[in-house]
Amino acid sequence: MHVNLLGPLEVLREGVLVTPSAPKLRQVISLLVIRANTVVRRDRLVDELWDDDPPASVVTTVQTYIYQLRKQLRLSPLDGGPGQDHGHRPGRLTPALETSPHGYQLKLDTTRVDLTRFEELAVRGRIEASAGDLASASRTFGDAARMWRGPTLVDVPLGPVLQGEVLRLEELRMNVLQQRLEADLQLGRHQELLGELTRLAADQPTNESYQAMLMLALHRSDRRADALRVYQRARIVLADRLGLDPSNRLQWLQQSVLASDPSLDPPARPGSRTVVRAKRPR
């Protein structure tokens, strides 16, 4: 069984899409996949599905949802031990949806969940960046970012439990994107990034990281006046929307652009470890 969470929910068995259509079933399977191979307590499922207003027949209703998922997705109620599922090598975990005294557990080979692959790539990219292998880090972060097909679980109703998971994943997605952009800037790819950074800075005008990276890319492209205009726009937006002054990083960057500070120059060679953050005030 393959499950994709990074965008619209997709559940596939033997290459055939078998995603449940009922909203409550989509919530249940999404939570069980995110917490795969651990017990999801029954009270957490109730919180997710009904928050503070569960029906009188809540236990029976949850049991019915579990029965329907087992039937629609062909999930055994027994232990999902090593077995042969279509597309699996012998020894892979056969999907199963077990009942425990306190809740339910989806036994699943998590290498067949897109979220697992994304998180593995994010970790690998950070390791490569820390080791100074910026070209590999950029490729790895890029591979991770391309796994997303849209907002997480965009077509699944979100209760309080799933909402927390979605916020966590969207934050991780943004972090991976920013790390890829930073790696590319350190590799001297400022001109190639101008279009993407311009869009990101416009879409998220209070995100100071995007404003700073756009300023740096413009400065390195001999567009100092445009870089300073980005700062002025950011200063106005931050004041109007949040009542804040620009961060020390943005203020330092503005002053450095005005002074043509050589620390802002592109790296002398691909893979240089010169970074803007090294000299900015904290």
CATH topology of the largest domain: Arc Repressor Mutant, subunit A
Beta-strand share of residues: 5-15%
Unreliable parts: 83-91, 271-282
Query: In this structure, how is the largest beta sheet organized?
Result: 3 strands, antiparallel
Percent helix, as a range, is 40-55%
Q: What overall geometry do the principal axes of the alpha carbons give?
A: elongated
State Rg.
24 Å
Our measurement of the CA-to-CA distance between the termini, rounded to an integer number of angstroms, reads: 48 Å
Query: Could you report the average pLDDT, rounded to the nearest whole number?
Result: 91
| Strands, count | 8
Number of helices: 10
Which second-level CATH architecture of the largest domain applies?
A: Orthogonal Bundle
Strand order of the largest sheet: 1-2-3
Which oligomeric state applies?
Answer: single chain
Number of domains: 2
**SS-based structural class?**
mainly alpha
Elements, N to C (H/E): EEEHEHHEEEEHHHHHHH
For CATH, the homologous superfamily of the largest domain is named as Winged helix-like DNA-binding domain superfamily/Winged helix DNA-binding domain
